[in-house]
């Protein structure tokens, strides 16, 4: 590669590659609106099956309900902002490429690392839950769990490597199955609903201030007050976490300017519907909100309450469909995210080489899987089995969520900066919420991050995120910034920023 002698802002140096550099890093266009919708919903749908319900323990039903409304507003502001930015900058880089244009190479890199943490660790946590379900279904010993993780990674990384057509076909199938399981649960629950008795069965012990169960229900709407609303917000995030990954499919979308905004917003409204249905129906049947506040499998607990424990294994197998949908879709995301940062030189260049026949980022997919699986094995063999489960389901999970929330904060600021400093960028779609919507996203993200930091598990996760960031920044500062490449998103960003500077 010949060098571009010009040093650009942020102390980065670009290398101008020959066409052969991009020839071995090609992607194939395939996705339409329906495939993009399935990718967005599939990435998130596992959150309807577990995780969100823990908010009942800190806020009761009313606190969780209001907290979910606030988080929904944040995600609407975020998704409408992304729906505007993605067709204006239709590159695989997604959030990194948006921030690269808005804030320069370091801003793009910092945003990219936040998403990298989210997308590499989230499927690791999801496959841990898949292994837990399968251990119960097939009665395998606890020490066999890493084998389930390995099988999961091999199967679904393999499906993603085999081609974008197969990848999206699998995404559509497992997403529709997961939605069908939820629909079956909602219909089955209707005869058993007693909202006042079960959903409102969280009270508070006046002596300790802790949540207690009210056997006959009829508890207060906000048993833990306004604090309960704010404390429940991080858990409400699970109902929408990862919908923001859709722009990573931009270069594999047939018409990203037309299809990406439709796919993002259709996915968001689908998730709003399923999220509020599960929030209203799941706690309103026997077991109730108090017990769901500590449940690792709230949908399965609901099925047990309706059909009895005899059907537990069959229903568990169906419940795994929601976890598989998210696992498969987020593997797609980390493959494209690593590919994009590598193609531009922020990560080592070899990670962006694509499969010669299938045109999928197989190297990035394998690398992301190895990191996620490797972190899980280290935890498993150093913490001990019981402690490892708590660590993976707690600290690693919270690292992923914190990475996501930090990226939302940065994406809201990116949208505001793009509107302010680059008004002449062609925008095929404009957010109806505009800058006020992005400002709300920033504010709610900051509040959520604050309450994440009050949880000791999140505090441990922050240390992990800080270590991840430190390693990435040392690499980029010492080496990566000197080997950047004019990939599509970098070329766009340089032209826009130099054009704005000359005005």
Automatic annotation (TrEMBL):
<feature type="transmembrane region" description="Helical">
    <location>
        <begin position="431"/>
        <end position="451"/>
    </location>
</feature>
<dbReference type="InterPro" id="IPR004841">
    <property type="entry name" value="AA-permease/SLC12A_dom"/>
</dbReference>
<feature type="transmembrane region" description="Helical">
    <location>
        <begin position="305"/>
        <end position="334"/>
    </location>
</feature>
<feature type="transmembrane region" description="Helical">
    <location>
        <begin position="31"/>
        <end position="52"/>
    </location>
</feature>
<feature type="transmembrane region" description="Helical">
    <location>
        <begin position="168"/>
        <end position="193"/>
    </location>
</feature>
<dbReference type="InterPro" id="IPR050367">
    <property type="entry name" value="APC_superfamily"/>
</dbReference>
<feature type="transmembrane region" description="Helical">
    <location>
        <begin position="58"/>
        <end position="78"/>
    </location>
</feature>
<feature type="transmembrane region" description="Helical">
    <location>
        <begin position="119"/>
        <end position="137"/>
    </location>
</feature>
<feature type="transmembrane region" description="Helical">
    <location>
        <begin position="364"/>
        <end position="382"/>
    </location>
</feature>
<keyword id="KW-0812">Transmembrane</keyword>
<keyword id="KW-1133">Transmembrane helix</keyword>
<dbReference type="Pfam" id="PF00324">
    <property type="entry name" value="AA_permease"/>
</dbReference>
<feature type="transmembrane region" description="Helical">
    <location>
        <begin position="388"/>
        <end position="410"/>
    </location>
</feature>
<keyword id="KW-0472">Membrane</keyword>
<feature type="transmembrane region" description="Helical">
    <location>
        <begin position="457"/>
        <end position="478"/>
    </location>
</feature>
<feature type="domain" description="Amino acid permease/ SLC12A">
    <location>
        <begin position="47"/>
        <end position="456"/>
    </location>
</feature>
<feature type="transmembrane region" description="Helical">
    <location>
        <begin position="143"/>
        <end position="161"/>
    </location>
</feature>
<feature type="transmembrane region" description="Helical">
    <location>
        <begin position="264"/>
        <end position="285"/>
    </location>
</feature>
<protein>
    <submittedName>
        <fullName>Amino acid permease</fullName>
    </submittedName>
</protein>
<feature type="transmembrane region" description="Helical">
    <location>
        <begin position="224"/>
        <end position="243"/>
    </location>
</feature>
């Amino acid at each position: 590669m010949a060098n571009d002698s010009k040093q650009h802002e942020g102390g980065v140096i670009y290398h101008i590659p020959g066409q052969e550099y991009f020839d071995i890093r090609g992607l194939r266009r395939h996705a339409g609106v329906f495939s993009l919708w399935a990718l967005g919903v599939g990435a998130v749908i596992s959150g309807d099956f577990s995780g969100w319900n823990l908010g009942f323990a800190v806020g009761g039903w009313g606190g969780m309900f209001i907290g979910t409304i606030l988080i929904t507003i944040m995600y609407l502001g975020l998704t409408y902002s992304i729906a505007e930015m993605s067709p204006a900058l239709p590159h695989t880089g997604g959030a990194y490429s948006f921030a690269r244009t808005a804030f320069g190479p370091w801003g793009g890199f910092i945003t990219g690392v936040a998403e990298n943490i989210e997308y590499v660790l989230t499927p690791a946590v999801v496959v841990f839950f898949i292994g837990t379900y399968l251990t119960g279904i097939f009665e395998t010993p606890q020490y066999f769990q890493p084998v389930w993780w390995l099988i999961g990674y091999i199967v679904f990384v393999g499906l993603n490597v085999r081609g974008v057509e197969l990848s999206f076909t699998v995404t559509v199938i497992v997403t529709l199955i997961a939605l069908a399981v939820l629909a079956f649960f909602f219909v089955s629950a209707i005869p058993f609903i007693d909202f006042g008795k079960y959903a409102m069965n969280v009270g508070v012990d006046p002596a300790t201030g802790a949540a207690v169960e009210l056997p006959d229900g009829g508890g207060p709407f906000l048993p833990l007050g306004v604090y309960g609303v704010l404390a429940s917000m991080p858990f409400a995030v699970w109902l929408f976490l990862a919908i923001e990954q859709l722009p990573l499919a931009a270069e594999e979308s047939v018409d990203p300017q037309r299809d990406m905004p439709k796919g993002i917003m259709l996915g968001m409204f689908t998730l709003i519907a399923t999220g509020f249905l599960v929030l209203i129906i799941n706690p309103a049947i026997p077991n109730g909100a108090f017990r769901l506040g500590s449940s690792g499998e709230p949908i399965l607990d609901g099925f047990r309450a309706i059909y009895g424990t005899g059907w537990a294994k069959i229903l568990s197998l169906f419940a795994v469909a929601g976890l598989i949908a998210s696992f498969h879709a987020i593997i797609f995301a980390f493959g494209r995210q690593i590919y994009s940062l590598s193609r531009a030189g922020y990560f080592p260049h070899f990670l962006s080489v694509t499969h010669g026949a299938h045109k999928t980022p197989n190297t990035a997919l394998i690398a992301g899987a190895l990191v996620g699986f490797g972190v899980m094995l280290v935890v498993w063999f150093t913490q001990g089995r019981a402690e490892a489960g708590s660590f993976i389901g707690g600290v690693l999970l919270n690292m992923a969520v914190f990475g996501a929330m930090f990226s939302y904060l940065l994406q809201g600021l990116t949208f505001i900066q793009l509107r302010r400093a680059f008004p002449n960028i062609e925008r095929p779609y404009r957010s109806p919420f505009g800058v006020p919507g992005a400002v709300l996203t920033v504010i709610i993200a900051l509040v959520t991050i604050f309450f994440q930091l009050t949880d000791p598990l999140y505090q441990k996760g922050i240390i992990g995120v800080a270590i991840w960031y430190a390693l990435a920044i040392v690499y980029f500062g010492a080496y990566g910034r000197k080997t950047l490449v004019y990939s599509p998103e970098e070329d766009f960003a340089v032209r826009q920023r130099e054009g704005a500077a000359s005005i």
